[in-house]
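queue> pop job 88
queue> type: inverse folding (structure -> sequence)
queue> payload:
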């Protein structure tokens, strides 16, 4: 096709990448984002959860990054743990304010009796990886600062308060990839974050990639996800020219660093039995599980698709997931 010409004979930019009409990358590098997210969120309303309070706060002024705090109203006199939740969206979409992420965090705070911290991070292609990883690290450093500062957010004080010695990182999809990065970035004991102590990581349908297709990737598309969209996410989020075997996409790729020597906190990897990313999540968990000293468990929800806990938060599978996460937190809350 011939490119349209401008009034001065200049070529008009063409659409180089189109993600569901919500995100377009033009040939001149311009990024267009739609303000309508109904296609993704299914017009899900923000839940009114009377047992949980929430508010927004800035955690990184230079990049104008916000997070949302969720605190249960009715708790015992004991201190409560902290859950840091990183949303999904292929590194290209998503925000703490999107209804299905917001509603899930309300449920996490209520069901787990925890203070939930849900940070945003810079999105691709305006900010390609490792920007999201850097922002996630900044969020944990912000949490550390709350633990040591006399000028901390008052939600971390008063009442029973929060226990900075019991912090858990949950990541959904691309957020699961972020959780992987944080687990190996800070290692076991998270000395750099002291007195914050991350006790475990939960990777929910983690977004990993690779040049060689897996069986589940070659399988039927999901209702909301297909292989073409996953590939677009990688083209838009990885450093320009990188393949899906880049270490930030494929933890076990040909140029990825060895992970055997790095000690990490306990990890739980969860995937739906019908999701395209299932095989990568399963392989990731089992490869780590074989490594000496790593406590990694893998759980698969039969017939469930990617993000089932966000899409149907009141389903039996979503309720079972919350119980599993709660048990995981209880099992590793008092290990020295």
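queue> result:
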């Amino acid at each position: 096709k011939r490119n349209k010409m401008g009034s001065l004979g200049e070529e008009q930019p063409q659409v180089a990448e189109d993600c569901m009409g919500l995100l377009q990358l033009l040939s001149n590098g311009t990024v267009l984002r739609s303000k309508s997210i109904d296609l993704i969120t299914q017009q899900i309303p923000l839940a009114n959860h009377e047992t949980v309070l929430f508010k927004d706060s800035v955690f990184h002024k230079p990049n104008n990054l916000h997070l949302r705090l969720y605190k249960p109203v009715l708790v015992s006199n004991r201190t409560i743990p902290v859950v840091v939740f990183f949303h999904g969206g292929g590194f290209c979409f998503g925000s703490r304010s999107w209804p299905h992420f917001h509603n899930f965090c309300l449920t996490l705070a209520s069901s787990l009796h925890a203070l939930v911290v849900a940070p945003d991070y810079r999105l691709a292609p305006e900010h390609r990886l490792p920007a999201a990883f850097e922002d996630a690290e900044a969020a944990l450093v912000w949490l550390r600062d709350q633990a040591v500062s006399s000028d901390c957010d008052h939600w971390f004080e008063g009442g029973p308060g929060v226990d900075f010695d019991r912090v858990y990182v949950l990541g959904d999809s691309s957020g699961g990839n972020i959780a992987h990065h944080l687990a190996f970035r800070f290692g076991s004991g998270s000395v750099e974050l002291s007195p914050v102590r991350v006790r475990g990581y939960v990777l929910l349908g983690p977004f990993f990639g690779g040049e060689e297709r897996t069986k589940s990737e070659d399988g039927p598309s999901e209702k909301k996800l297909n292989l073409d969209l996953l590939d677009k996410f990688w083209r838009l989020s990885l450093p320009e020219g990188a393949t899906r075997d880049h270490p930030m996409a494929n933890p076990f790729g040909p140029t990825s660093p060895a992970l055997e020597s790095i000690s990490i906190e306990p990890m739980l990897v969860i995937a739906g039995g019908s999701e395209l990313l299932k095989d990568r999540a399963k392989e990731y968990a089992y490869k780590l599980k074989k490594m000496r000293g790593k406590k990694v468990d893998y759980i698969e929800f039969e017939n469930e698709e990617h993000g089932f806990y966000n899409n149907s938060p009141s389903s039996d599978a979503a309720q079972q997931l919350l119980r599993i996460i709660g048990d995981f937190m209880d099992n590793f809350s008092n290990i020295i």
